[in-house]
Design a protein that fits this description.
By secondary structure, the chain is of the alpha+beta class. It has four domains: 5-13 and 77-164, Alpha-Beta Plaits (2-Layer Sandwich), CATH 3.30.70; 24-74, MutS, DNA mismatch repair protein, domain I (3-Layer(aba) Sandwich), CATH 3.40.1170.60; 167-222, 5' to 3' exonuclease, C-terminal subdomain (DNA polymerase, domain 1), CATH 1.10.150; 239-343, 2-Layer Sandwich (Dna Ligase, domain 1), CATH 3.30.1490.100. The chain contains eleven helices and twelve strands. α4 runs antiparallel to α5 (116-131) and α10 (252-273) packs across α11 (305-319). The relative contact order is 0.11. Bound molecules: thymidine-5'-triphosphate and magnesium ion.
Length: 346
């Protein structure tokens, strides 16, 4: 089986961006987090990890473990910007990219004619050259193994897991490393003395499915190198919007009601798709079929109904000159996949 799945994960992502923007931080233990002592670290650079500092640890604890730690405040929009830069590079290697989080993606490279190992190395080289960041790359023939592989030699590492490495390469792994084993099933396994993949191997398919349901079947396959999940790209949309034609009117009350209604519809649609937008546009068409539009772009992604409504009202008021209207529309563009930023606790 060809190794045609690559998993890419940026190294110490937020901290690396901070080091890139402020090279004086290099070589020191750095964590990124909130202002207060009780806020949580979003990430620690590799130097800080030597002191045991890690994501989700409170700042006060980090300070007690490593008094010299440098704490940098989160700048989420800068991280989003850098994340986009990295994804621009990844797009040059495959059209089938699944973004899993702000710093992590799967690429299906089946269509790419180059050698998989060459592609993996080129991804590392090109991301570094174009963005200044290092990534770790895992190459394998399915998603589960590609992700395990990218974690193997972090940071700035690469690992290949081929079919002939299976299952030996997994046997010593702790069960918590196996995708699909959550904390509840982990506990259940430990209770019956199953701690490693090697232990897991002793269990029959019947036993696993009877005790762990559908996940049991999947686990049975997964540790034997079978993972049928495909790389599923987020369909990139240019815009989302609501517009409607109505009986000509210049009644402000009616028009405001439309804006309110359309804002709510747009809000629900964005929410359902887990998308935020940085640009809103209002479009008007008058009874003579003349069209006017007005847009505004914001640094922060807009997601809330109140914001959509207020901004749309403002845009409307800026261009509406009391003419009779037959159509009104509100649309969102410059879309952001919020799934990709949800890891952030900020
Ligand atoms: P990760 O890829 O899990 O971590 P990392 O990139 O900092 O380090 P590694 O080298 O091990 O990959 O997460 C990516 C970014 O997401 C991370 O830099 C900060 C953010 N994040 C949070 O905001 N909260 C969290 O709990 C975690 C785990 C990450
Ligand atoms: Mg990472």
């Amino acid at each position: 089986m060809r190794n045609n799945i690559i998993h890419v994960d940026i190294d110490a992502f937020y901290a690396s961006v901070e080091e890139l923007d402020n090279p004086r931080l290099k070589g020191y233990p750095v964590v990124v987090g909130g202002k207060s002592e009780n806020s949580i670290i979003t990430t620690a650079n590799y130097k800080a990890r030597e002191y045991g500092l890690h994501s989700a640890m409170p700042i006060f604890m980090a300070k007690s473990l490593c008094p010299d730690v440098i704490i940098v405040e989160n700048r989420r929009y800068r991280y989003l910007e850098k994340s986009r830069e990295v994804f621009q590079v990844l797009k040059t290697f495959s059209n089938t990219i699944e973004q899993v989080s702000i710093d992590e993606a799967y690429l299906d490279i089946s269509e790419n004619k180059e050698e998989p190992i060459y592609i993996a190395k080129e991804i590392m080289r090109k991301v570094k050259k174009e963005t200044g960041l290092t990534v770790s790359v895992g190459l394998s023939y399915n998603k589960f193994l590609a992700k395990l592989a990218s974690d193997w030699n972090k940071p700035n590492g690469m690992k290949i897991i081929s079919q002939e490495d299976m299952p030996d390469i997994l046997l010593d792994f702790d069960i918590s490393k196996v995708y699909g084993i959550g904390s509840k099933s982990e506990k259940k396994f430990r209770n019956i003395g199953i701690n490693t993949v090697s232990d897991l191997f002793q269990l029959s398919e019947e036993f696993l499915s009877e005790n762990f349901g559908k996940m049991g079947y999947e686990l049975y396959d997964r540790i034997r190198g079978i993972d049928k999940r495909v790389v599923t790209p987020f369909r990139e949309r240019k815009s989302l919007g609501v517009e409607r034609t109505f009986k000509d009117t210049r009644d402000k009350k009616d028009l405001f009601e439309y804006i309110d209604k359309f804002s709510k519809e747009l809000y629900l649609d964005l929410k359902k798709k887990n998308i935020g937008c940085n640009t809103l546009t209002v479009k008007l068409k008058n009874s003579d079929f003349e069209t006017k539009t007005k847009s505004k772009t914001f640094e922060q992604a807009i997601v809330e109904y109140e914001d959509i409504k207020n901004i749309s009202m403002d845009l409307f008021n800026e261009i509406y000159k009391n003419e009779k209207l037959r159509l009104l529309g509100i649309s969102a563009s410059n879309l952001t996949d919020l799934k990709a930023v949800q890891l952030s606790f900020i």
